[in-house]
Amino acid sequence: MAGLIDIAVVDDDRMLLEGMRSWLAGQDRLRLVATAPTVGELLGGPGRAAGVVLLDLMLRDGSQPEANVRRVRESGSRVLVISTAADRSRVVAAVAAGADGYLTKDHALETLVEAVETVAAGGTAHSPELAFAWVGDTGPERPRLAPRERQVLRDYASGLTLKATARRAGITMNTAKHYLDQVKEKYRQVGRPACTKIELARRAREDGLTD
């Protein structure tokens, strides 16, 4: 079927997994190819070929969210992290490690479908919980941007040209470019590359600077 997305789920909640299987049976856009209680078991079976992996934030095997995200991403799958509640520090760590989005499990199933499709297409699935986690974060993964750097990043990432960004800020284009270069360097230093406008827009969304 054209456009069919193969997904896998890593979660140690058996009731949730059964509910997921039942619900996905009625979906014509998503196909569940595997479930597993740990990342290791998923990658040792057919789940390693899934286009998108729904990964529970906290598993009972004691594994760290960021390590799980990296292992799944290294296998070639994209990652949508899910959990019962927003744990700010762990959400931030998971996204900084390469997760392509975050949702709490209380969202409507239609929201989950939309998020999976966004992630499968190469985008980032944002949610109010993710924005809240980034906005309140003070960890080392979040660069310390000066007010003018945040303003230039926010305007440029929202789609304005460099010239329009400079005009809105009341500065020259060269100065605006200097601020953007500073922003890029600060993101590089915390291990979150932002070399292109697309990457800058993604970082701005992740950090709650844009919608």
Automatic annotation (TrEMBL):
<dbReference type="GO" id="GO:0006355">
    <property type="term" value="P:regulation of DNA-templated transcription"/>
</dbReference>
<dbReference type="Pfam" id="PF00072">
    <property type="entry name" value="Response_reg"/>
</dbReference>
<dbReference type="GO" id="GO:0003677">
    <property type="term" value="F:DNA binding"/>
</dbReference>
<dbReference type="InterPro" id="IPR000792">
    <property type="entry name" value="Tscrpt_reg_LuxR_C"/>
</dbReference>
<dbReference type="InterPro" id="IPR039420">
    <property type="entry name" value="WalR-like"/>
</dbReference>
<dbReference type="InterPro" id="IPR011006">
    <property type="entry name" value="CheY-like_superfamily"/>
</dbReference>
<keyword id="KW-0238">DNA-binding</keyword>
<dbReference type="InterPro" id="IPR001789">
    <property type="entry name" value="Sig_transdc_resp-reg_receiver"/>
</dbReference>
<keyword id="KW-0597">Phosphoprotein</keyword>
<protein>
    <submittedName>
        <fullName>DNA-binding response regulator</fullName>
    </submittedName>
</protein>
<feature type="domain" description="Response regulatory">
    <location>
        <begin position="6"/>
        <end position="120"/>
    </location>
</feature>
<feature type="modified residue" description="4-aspartylphosphate">
    <location>
        <position position="56"/>
    </location>
</feature>
<dbReference type="GO" id="GO:0000160">
    <property type="term" value="P:phosphorelay signal transduction system"/>
</dbReference>
<dbReference type="InterPro" id="IPR016032">
    <property type="entry name" value="Sig_transdc_resp-reg_C-effctor"/>
</dbReference>
